[in-house]
# Entry
Amino acid sequence: MRKPELITAIADQADLSKDKAGEALNAILEQISKALERQETISLIGFGSFAQRARGARKGKNPQTGEEIEIPASNTVAFKPGKALKDAVNQ
# Structure
């Protein structure tokens, strides 16, 4: 499912226009992004949690040349699914 299909599904289920559903989805995604920028954890009970995690610097290999390269430290986003989501996927 892509974003336009998700917006349509939200609009149908919540009895909203597609424009309002799109605005709501964009607002949710923006707030999740801003919270992660502030290094906050977002917990959506039953769905899951988003958190920022730090990755340390490490060594890797260039797949074309096989040359060893240094991969710098970076931050990433981790998602841990909640029980209800796990159960829905494993039916």
Q: What stands out?
A: The chain is about 45% helix and 30% strand. Helices lie at 3-14, 18-37, 83-89. Strands lie at 42-44, 48-55, 58-61, 68-71, 74-81.
